[in-house]
Write a structure and sequence with these properties.
The structure holds 2 protein chains of 2 kinds.
Chain A: H1 2-22, H2 26-46, H3 53-78, H4 93-114, H5 125-142, H6 146-167, H7 173-201
Chain B: H1 4-18, H2 23-45, H3 59-85, H4 91-110, H5 114-132, H6 138-172, H7 180-183, H8 192-210, H9 218-225, H10 228-255, H11 259-281, H12 287-308, H13 311-341, H14 352-355, H15 357-370, H16 377-391, H17 395-421, H18 438-452, H19 456-467
Helix pairs in contact in B: 1-2, 1-4, 2-3, 2-4, 3-4, 3-10, 3-13, 3-18, 3-19, 4-5, 4-10, 5-6, 5-10, 6-8, 6-9, 8-10, 8-11, 9-10, 9-12, 10-11, 10-12, 10-13, 11-12, 11-17, 12-13, 12-16, 12-17, 13-15, 13-16, 13-18
Classes of the chains: A mainly alpha, B mainly alpha.
Chain lengths: ~210, ~475
């Protein structure tokens, strides 16, 4: 039963990945990262390791930071910005969704080949982590909207975290918490920069940020 | 009591935000002095960390720590006069983040746990981003945006690489703490495939921060838009901190018998960086960007030397120390030029020799030193690297290396001559305060002295650091 839960959670994340590829609106993308943040942080509950109090507290802290604080800080930062604008795709939405499908298939094939022993019970977890990671990269490269790029970065971090839950069992909670704080502070700083970009350039299109060259 | 070295600037940094506006200037210098004393005590006593396993005193860390400490002290003296002449709107924020930046960089040099090192390096990005945005202009905003985004994504790759290292431990059933000092002795047992993957990701990740091409694109923007004292810190010591991460991982690779693999990759990235710098420095029209490209070149030289191994590693470490001393002096001098002429473009400057003679001496000597002229240390470092490359039989690589250095020298010299001797719009000399030139003189003098006389303790530490990755003077 436990195995099923992890696989169900993974497939939910995979669906949200496809949704992110096709999404043209920033508010929708923020909801996606909030959803992914929550799902990714509750995976350790179901993965079958023994949970002591420290691990429990840490998992809840992750849930609060990844699922609530990070999406909220982006949401607040752009509240007054023209968020009805679309994400300025460099690659069109249909092509993006197709890329997403190819990516998921490729991730599944690759993780079969890698043959990592600790993954034998939850097959979908590793492909999901790879897909999240690459989706983050994709959004960073194929969208010109600065907010979409920050969201791409958050997705990338979620993917790395999910990959970490699959095998880094020895990492201590205090260390993981440090990583989490760094990510949170990074997103907060990006949110401040977003606000300033909006105020200075009156838009969040990164083509405006092309004065510094060579 | 290792931790106190980075906790001190952290606390004073937080203090600077709440203290009255101009008190931060004195606080910078006081912290600089205290930090220097603490670092020297650390050199002398080499104590154990309270949180052993997370932090440790290592030879390569000590070298970087001393460079950071000395540089910060001298830069803080410069900053006092600099802040008096520049009316910064949010001076508290500037001094506060300078101190936090010092704290995070110190933490990098003392980290032993792989993940703690990652946390510290990411923290340096976060602490230095507000420094780049000090001038509150559109261009500085763009530079900050690129810096935070590119470096965060790059460093995320290093986190992935660090995870692969844990996987390499899991697969080989190696049960030791995840620290560099614990992993290096058992490196041979680790799973080689994932170790290699981890190294590549860590190199790309920390290489982004170090300014290796083709991940260097943020560097010229950030270094040119930051105020000069911050540029000097960014270029002089932050790049070394990222290099330290690569150096320590390379140590594991060499211990695991994969030194050839890591060496080839390091050499490739090094050569690409030097070539990229040579391409862009030729047509540079801003002097601070020119200095930034020179930093990319020097990081390439250091990576190349580390990749060669043997005497090349010794040369790389020498280059690292002297690059920090010389490049920070050059960035401080460029701050004087900006103060005097008020323009970033080379064409708007000229006749530096006549109008700012004291700065001219520091700037020109710095130029000679960074180009690898004797009697400055870069000359010795580059010589060792070239000898190492020939000894190891990398003739083609050594050829590209030397040719690129020549091109960079030509481009650099061309621009420096324009700044120093071209006709200027006016002839009236600018007032040069002592606090704005003496730090550079001391930095250059230190480089000069270290070339002829290296104290035994320092020499021994360099040799210890270099031996660990199979380098040495033989």
């Amino acid at each position: 039963m436990i195995l099923h839960t992890v696989n169900i959670l993974s497939s939910l994340v995979l669906l949200s990945v496809l949704f992110a590829f096709g999404s043209s609106r920033i508010p929708a993308l923020i909801k996606v990262i909030a959803f992914q943040g929550i799902v990714v942080s509750i995976v350790p509950f179901f993965i079958g390791h023994d949970m002591e109090t420290g691990g429990m507290i840490f998992t809840v802290a992750t849930l609060v930071i990844r699922g609530i604080l990070i999406p909220l800080s982006i949401h607040i930062a752009i509240k007054k910005v023209a968020i009805q604008r679309d994400v300025f795709p460099v690659i069109g939405y249909h092509a993006s969704i197709f890329c997403g499908l190819v990516l998921i298939v490729a991730a599944t094939v690759i993780s079969r080949q890698l043959n990592i022993p600790s993954l034998s019970d939850s097959r979908l977890l590793f492909p999901t982590a790879i897909s999240l990671l690459v989706t983050g990269m994709f959004l960073l490269m194929a969208r010109r909207n600065a907010i979409a790029m920050v969201i791409g970065y958050i997705m990338l971090e979620n993917g790395i975290y999910l990959m970490g839950t699959t095998f880094s069992l020895r990492a201590l909670h205090i260390v993981e918490f440090g990583i989490l704080l760094d990510v949170l502070a990074g997103v907060m700083i990006m949110a401040v920069i977003l606000q300033n970009i909006k105020q200075t350039f009156d838009d969040v299109d990164t083509t405006l940020l092309r004065t510094l060259k060579e | 009591m290792v931790e106190i070295v980075f906790l001190t600037p952290f606390i004073t940094g937080l203090l600077a935000f709440v203290l009255p506006r101009t008190m931060g200037r004195q606080l910078l210098v006081v912290t600089g002095v205290v930090h220097l004393i603490l670092s020297l005590l650390l050199w002398k006593n080499r104590p154990d960390a309270i949180f052993a396993g997370y932090f440790a005193v290592t030879p390569e860390g000590l070298l970087s720590l001393l460079v950071i400490s000395l540089l910060f002290f001298l830069i803080s003296i410069y900053t006092i006069t600099y802040l008096k002449l520049n009316n910064l709107k949010a001076e508290n924020v500037f001094t506060g983040f300078m101190l936090l930046f010092l704290s995070t960089m110190t933490m990098v040099t003392l980290s032993d746990h792989i993940m703690v090192l990652w946390i510290a390096i990411e923290a340096t990005t976060l602490a230095s981003a507000p420094l780049i945005y000090t001038h509150r202009s559109g261009a500085s905003l763009e530079a900050t945006w690129k810096y935070v985004l590119i470096c965060s994504v790059g460093i995320a790759m290093a986190l992935l690489g660090s995870l692969f290292l844990t996987l390499a431990m899991d697969l080989a059933k190696v049960d030791v703490p995840m620290s560099f000092s614990a992993l290096t002795p058992v490196a041979e047992l680790l799973d080689p495939v994932w170790l290699k993957a981890g190294f590549v990701f860590i190199l790309v990740g920390y290489g982004t921060k170090m300014g290796l091409a083709p991940m260097h694109t943020w560097l010229p923007d950030a270094h040119s838009e930051a105020p000069s004292p911050a540029s000097a810190l960014l270029s002089g010591v932050l790049l070394n901190c990222a290099y330290l991460g690569i150096f320590k991982t390379n140590k594991i690779m060499v211990a695991a018998g994969l030194g050839d693999f890591s060496g080839t990759i390091l050499m490739t990235f090094g050569l690409i960086s030097i070539l990229a710098a040579a391409t862009f420095i030729l047509k540079q029209n801003e002097y601070k960007r020119m200095l930034a490209y020179s930093s990319i070149e020097n990081m390439g030289i250091i990576a190349f030397g580390t990749g060669i191994g043997g005497i090349g590693v010794y040369g790389a470490v020498i280059c690292m120390i002297h690059h920090s001393l010389i490049k920070s002096s050059l960035f401080l001098s460029s701050g004087n030029i900006l103060l005097g002429y008020g323009h970033r473009l080379i064409t708007d400057t000229g006749n530096l020799a006549g109008r700012m003679p004291k700065t001219f001496v520091a700037f020109f000597a710095g130029f000679a030193a960074i180009s690898g002229f004797p009697p400055f240390g870069i000359f010795i470092g580059e010589l060792f690297i070239i000898v190492g490359a020939f000894k190891a039989g990398h003739y083609a690589a050594a050829g590209i290396f030397i040719a690129s250095l020549c091109v960079i020298f030509a481009g650099f010299a061309n621009q420096v001559m324009k700044i120093c001797f071209n006709d200027a719009p006016g002839t009236t000399p600018f007032a040069e305060k002592a606090g704005l030139v003496w730090p550079q003189y001391i930095l250059l003098l230190t480089s000069l002295i270290l070339c002829f006389f290296i104290p035994d303790a320092l020499y021994q530490t360099i040799v210890d650091a270099v031996n660990a990755i199979g380098g040495g003077l033989q």
